[in-house]
Specification:
Length: 240
């Protein structure tokens, strides 16, 4: 619904007043329906929900793996605060489900989910040298100023944290920054396997990935796909 925007731009106290005719022509709207709408405008509650839905949609478009709780956090950071229940209802009504969290059916008639990516570790969490196997995860911490997300990378051989990143928002850059930190600290990591669980964090939502000096191993959900989502080819920089 673009009519509230037309009304705001045409208001007498607007910083840069734009006539209704000009706005409608630019937006491709007919003026008569707009004037009919003026006689029965939407309520303030409907307008508020529209702005909330727009903020949720923007967050869902940027990170389709997020569930409604994380989308609500992103919307709150964008200035549209709402209860988690409200975010869930809006997402439900619009079909904005997490790319990894919505099951189709139940019981014996349930459809199989997406195939699990190759597990290069095969549950053997040992390494015979440094930079052979790294484990990673993202944790959420409550602070006096809101939530804080920590992504850490651990070298299995030494048991040390070799890279980490901290951010107030759980975006793709959180995971990429942690990998960049690990590679910067440890130097070349050709042949290293990075393994994580299949949690809600889409940034590390693959079973395991292998990268070397030649680039990124092809595979759905790996660093190669993060490179498409992050400006500047960050994932390729990490891989190399």
């Amino acid at each position: 619904m673009m009519y509230p925007l037309v009304r705001e731009l045409a208001a007498a106290d607007a910083p840069y007043r734009v006539p209704v005719a000009v706005t409608c022509r630019v937006l491709g709207l007919a003026r008569q329906p707009y004037y009919r709408w003026l006689t029965r405008p939407v309520t303030d509650a409907e307008t508020a929900e529209a702005y909330r839905a727009n903020a949720l949609f923007d967050a869902h478009r940027d990170d389709p793996e997020f569930g409604h709780r994380f989308l609500a956090d992103e919307a709150r950071a964008a200035g549209e605060a709402m209860a988690e229940r409200t975010a869930w209802r809006i997402c439900r009504d619009n079909g904005w489900w997490s790319a990894f969290g919505k099951r189709k059916g139940r019981g014996k008639n349930a459809k199989a989910g997406p195939p699990v990516h190759d597990d290069l570790v095969r549950r053997h969490f040992t390494a015979d040298g440094p930079n052979r196997l790294w484990l990673t995860d993202i944790t959420e911490h409550a602070t006096g100023e809101g939530k804080l997300y920590l992504c850490a990378i651990k070298d299995v051989y030494s048991g040390r944290i070799v890279g980490y990143s901290i951010d107030a928002r759980m975006k793709s850059r959180l995971a990429v920054a942690a990998l960049e930190s690990a590679v910067a600290r440890r130097g070349p990591a050709a042949g290293c396997v990075v393994h994580s669980d299949r949690g809600s964090q889409g940034e590390f939502n693959w079973s395991s990935q292998h990268f070397d000096l030649g680039g990124v191993r092809r595979g759905h959900g790996g660093l190669e796909f993060e490179d498409q989502r992050c400006s500047g080819g960050s994932a390729s920089a990490v891989a190399c």
